[in-house]
Amino acid sequence: GQQLNQSPQSMFIQEGEDVSMNCTSSSIFNTWLWYKQDPGEGPVLLIALYKAGELTSNGRLTAQFGITRKDSFLNISASIPSDVGIYFCAGRNYGGSQGNLIFGKGTKLSVKP
Amino acid sequence: DAGITQSPRYKITETGRQVTLMCHQTWSHSYMFWYRQDLGHGLRLIYYSAAADITDKGEVPDGYVVSRSKTENFPLTLESATRSQTSVYFCASSEPGGSYGYTFGSGTRLTVV
Fold first, then answer.
1. Mean residue pLDDT across chain B
2. Does B38 contact A at CB distance below 8 Å?
């Protein structure tokens, strides 16, 4: 089946550093979503992207929908300890059913104060 | 309370026993989903439902049964639990089209001994 390649798998950074992660696919998506999962909780939607080339911000988070429609990027600026968690990308195909929201395997972020 | 609620939060069961995980949402979302989360695999779709009495298999349906007699409830049953079904299970819901992505519950951590 379809897969999203999310990288890196994990990151261990110093507080205040910027963070970048990305997802790539062999298929075209018409929607890209980024979620964050806090320890012991379910994923929560951070940013949704609907158009190729779209750049959207949510506070210190910025995400982009790649021009090729096969990738997306998430950047976190000036990281803080509460940024710790697992970040998931998710994509939906053109004409896909609700079952076709595909998730990446996640990027685990650890922040050292 | 408005939202999506999963119960129980934690469950330990023995191999071969039947166990049901509950999911309840108060938004009247049409779509509901069950995922399992395991290290190295990310989120994998077990079953989903487009409406009451309509269900469909996801990526890893074997060993699981679902039903949806009411829009707001989507229970997941492990008919004869196995150790490989030890996991964290997440329920999610969405409107058709899901432009805003899925909303997840807080998860059920299931251990099969």
1. 93
2. no
Q: Which of A45, A48, A103 sits opposite B43 (nearest CB)?
A: A103
The Cα–Cα gap between B52 and B75 comes to 12
Beta-bridge partners for B20? B77
- Contact B42/A33, CB-based, under 8 Å? no
**Contact criterion met (CB < 8 Å) for B106 and A40:** yes
Cβ atoms of residues B41 and B50 within 8 Å: no
Per-residue pLDDT of chain A (113 residues; tens, 9 = 90+): 567 899 999 999 999 999 999 999 998 888 999 999 999 999 999 999 999 999 999 999 999 999 999 999 999 999 999 999 999 999 987 555 555 688 999 999 999 88
Distance to chain B for A78, nearest Cα, Å = 26
Judged by phi (left if over 0) then psi (alpha if -120 to 50, else beta), residue A27 lies in beta
